[in-house]
Amino acid sequence: MTGVNVEGVLQARLPVRQLARACVGACAKAAAELAARRGGLSEVPAVRVDDRAVGTAFVSERHLLINGRAPVNFAPLSRFWRTSDGWVRTHANYPHHRERLLKVMGPADGLEAAFAERSALEVEESVYAAGGLAVALRTPQEWAAHPQAAAVASRPLVEHGRLDSARARAFAPLEGTAPLLPAAGLRVLDLTRVIAGPVATRTLALLGADVLRLDPPRLPELPDQHADTGFGKRSATLDLAVGRRSFEELLGTADVVVTGYRPGALERFGLTPEALAERRPGIVVAQLSAWGAHGPWRERRGFDSLVQVATGIAAVEGSVERPGALPAQALDHGTGYLLAAAVLRALTEQADEGGSRFVRLALARTAEWLMNGIEADARGDAPYDGPGAWLAETDSGIGRLRYALPPVSFAGGPTDWARPPGPWGTDPARWV
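Now predict its structure.
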């Protein structure tokens, strides 16, 4: 693996640049290995990781322009609030989360005073009980003493396993194709939202997969957020409660299912790895959550910004008196690339050993890795000259787009997505 290390990219007190480079590099290597296998190559194509491309991609949502307009990435009520004994951070980008927050804390014009009257933990618990999102600021030491931190730290960064003895996967060869698309011909059902899961499936689409994102029709996605992570994919709506037959038809010829909802949310629809493998032997099931699949917070909702606050990252990047934040939603983006890498590795292992597979990651576990598992490296081989070379423009069904190019790079591989995003939920819920 070669690359360009650039000091000044994703600057932070924690080794964010190193995390970003490692996650993208792991994904590119897994893609190159699968490309070599399917392409009949005697050697794995060389992988290149350029910090400038990585740094641009990790803030792709900030570089996006739609007809010259910059998107709004955080709603006004998604922010830090001072409480009687510290700080909380809220997440209210979605209308239903905003409504639940205000139901507990009162009218928007009185929120400053309402937060100041309560303790951080009281706000955390009361807003959570109402289905909203608020997390108290913790130091690294306070998080380490929390039972959820113990549950997260006890698990590997990437959980993976075999579910059955399904026969080995037989890939169609890629000889003579350009670019090399290691996921060509694979069908991916994308049941994810926000950033991490969609980044993973956006990457699989880059590598040739037919990715169909499914969303419940009564829970619309934020259009700008969908535009940033919708490259290469199609987007449809499907109510799993009434459209089970349609879903089972899609599952019947799917190769990968990626879910990004909190553990337990999809179990009533039979979407556990075991249930999916029973109905579709040979499937790869990739699961993503905020807090992990184990521990007292396993069923809690969460987002990158909230995980930063709970795990002590916000205290490290700022202080307990004035919390800070990472220079990117690096837990989201990093976990997304690791999830794509895990899917690619599972597909390669299936070709050797067979078996339905599952892979599982959590933002909180990636946070633990950032806090305790990555060594800082200040080396710089090239000056940072801004994101210009790593941005592109294209026309789309939602307007003229400026966007960040993909950072996953290997010799002979793709350099851009085959199609831009379209409007959310406008594609048919069927394979092409």
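The first strand starts at residue 2 and ends at 4.
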